[in-house]
Write a structure and sequence with these properties.
This protein has 75 residues and is mainly α. Helix content is 73%, strand content 0%. Helix 1 crosses helix 2.
Length: 75
């Protein structure tokens, strides 16, 4: 059980770094970092791509983040 928690903590920490890099490369998102991390987790699972490569994020990730962050504003 502790191993699963450690892996989850590491995954969240990594996604937090990706979220920070997205904000630097694309722009800030008007929601909490936790929501961005949740979106990133879903995007990685849906996109079928490998884990994002820091700091060289894929164009598809940056484009999806830009679309998603603008949709959040429009709601």
């Amino acid at each position: 059980m502790a191993d699963q928690i450690d892996r989850l903590d590491a995954e969240i920490a990594f996604l937090d770094q990706v979220a920070a890099e997205l904000e630097r490369q694309v722009g800030p998102c008007p929601v909490t970092r936790s929501l961005v991390i949740a979106w990133l987790s879903e995007w990685v699972a849906r996109a079928g791509e490998s884990k994002p490569d820091l700091p060289h994020l894929s164009q598809s990730l940056k484009a999806a983040y830009a679309v998603w962050s603008h949709q959040v504003v429009d709601r």
